[in-house]
Design a protein that fits this description.
Order of helices and strands: HHHHHHH
Structural class: mainly alpha
Amino acid sequence: MNKLFNNRKLVRLADFLYLSVLWAVFSLPVITIGASTSALYYTIYYSVKNEEGYIFSEYWKAFKRTFKKATLNWILFLITASAFYLDSVIILQKTNGSLIGIVGQMFFLLLIPLECFLIIYIIPYISRFNSPLKLVWKNSAILAFANLFDTVTMFILLIISIMIIWLIPITVVILPAFVTYIISNKMEKIFAKYIREYEHENHLPM
């Protein structure tokens, strides 16, 4: 029994290594990070957790399926986050560091983590559900702020993992898949709760 358990742990570790390398390779153009992360989430959920299909085929299938939506949302995220940061710098410079300038800078800087909260849900949502973009944005916003504690926890986890990869680059071969696995545990509980509520409200069979 212990041997079987250890073998499963080794297989999962190998899966994490393989998926993390796939994610890093497919993320190299930077603008594809959204699609690459969406594919990573999908593969973690279906191939690693549910042990369905082959890792590369599932990853590639998800990458192609979610490429347009995930890439568009990632580019929008990069553009708006950059714009908020530049606005914060410009407003502080134009007001010569006055109190109004500092308040304005803090306002724009605060918008960046709020936007991060949204993208944390948008990418898994695109990975799991085939919905129009307006519905993706609406539901992601609702989920992010209705589950604020979980949202902040996932945000902090992502920031820590990014810092670790920045300081110790070799960890990119394990952390992306490992962190996505942890996040998927929280995310799937959130999704399941709202799916049950939707089915109940619409009298759908569960």
